[in-house]
Structure formats: C-alpha cells, structure tokens
Amino acid sequence: MLPFSPEQFLSVFVNYNTAIWPVQVVAYLLGGLAISLLFWKVSHADRVIAGVLAAMWLWTGFAYHGIFFSPINTAAYLFGTLFILQGACLMYSGTYQNRLCFGLEFATPAWIGVALVIYAAIIYPLIGMASGHQYPETPMFGVTPCPVTIFTFGLLLLTVRPVPRWLLVVPFVWSLIGGSAAILLNVPQDWLLLVSGCIAVPVIIFRDRRAMSDVRAA
C-alpha cells in the first residue's frame, strides 16, 4: 500500500514542473549536447557527457526527491540520497577519472542504447500525454527519476569501453522501484523502465566481458 494517492502523486509533478520552469528546457539542451557529442568527438567530450548525466541525477535527487516528493513520501529522502550518490559516482568516475568512453558502434547494445535514448527524450512524454497526463502533470525528461534512468541506461549502452559496475547498481534498483509506478499508479510510460534494467544491465555486462576476453586473447 502506497502512502499517497495517484492524485497526490500527479500533483507533485504539477507543483514541481511549475516551480522549476524553465529547467526542463535546460535539461533538453543538455541532453541534446550529450547526444551531439556522440557524433562530434571534441576534446573532453566523454567527460562532458558524463557530467550531463551526473547533473541530471544530482538535480533529480535534490530537487525532485528531496524537496517535492518527500512531503508525500518520506522514502523520497532515501531515494534522493541514492540519486545524489549516483550523480557523485558519475561525476567521479566519468568526469574526473574519465573512465566512460562514449561512441557509436554498429552492434546490438548500441542499437538498444539508441532506442532507450529516443524513448526517454521523445516517446516517454508523448505516451504520458496520450494517456491523459498533459504538462505539467507529467514526468519530464532530464529532471524526473524515470526518464533520467532510462536515458542513463541508453548512454551507458553507447559506451565503447567497459563500464564500472557500480554505476549500474542505482539505476537498476530504481528501474524496479520507479517502474512499479506503471502498475501501482497507472503510469504507462514507465512500463519500459520496469524492464529496462533487466535488459540493459545484462547486455552491458555481457558486452564488457566479451570485450575484455577479446583483449586478453589478442
């Protein structure tokens, strides 16, 4: 049993989206920058992409979970802590240590990644509107947990070097927690989130293990 009603849940998005405008536009611009850097490999492109992901997780953890969701669900403080932790890990591993190398490859993991990126940025909000949740009563790209998680899985699938495993833990956990909204709160766009972790994490691990085996065999 959830400690809040579907109406209260949707009202959080109304209040949140109204209060933070135009941060949603900034999130789309940052997402577009990250995607463009997959094609335009300038100096420090990988660090910038990781920084974009980190910023999305940090913002969502602090602003959405910590300030707006917590009044109706005290578990949001824990969720916010996890999101801030994930943002810090992305900042440290991806931006500071430069351990994430993004790129496009003609392989199944990359195509799955492209599909998840498109879903998070474009299809997710369209499904929300089609199901009757018009703006501002809908989770928006880059500033709410579920689209951020799907977008993150998409970009991590678009890496060409092994991904540190700890970067997969929080997104996987949230794919199960947040994805439950598809069932419990009738948020149809979250159906993909519910399975995204079960798809992306094994694919990334298998891809990285295979790449490391190929390196050892060479």
TrEMBL record:
InterPro entries: DUF6064
Ranges annotated as spanning the membrane: 20-40, 47-69, 75-94, 106-127, 139-159, 166-185, 191-207
Keyword Transmembrane on entry: yes
Keyword Membrane: yes
Highest rank taxon of the organism: Bacteria
Pfam families reported for this sequence: DUF6064 (PF19540)
Coiled-coil intervals, chain numbering: none
Keyword terms of this UniProt record: Membrane, Transmembrane, Transmembrane helix
Protein name (record): Uncharacterized protein
Organism: Bradyrhizobium stylosanthis
Upper classification of the organism: Bacteria, Pseudomonadati, Pseudomonadota, Alphaproteobacteria, Hyphomicrobiales
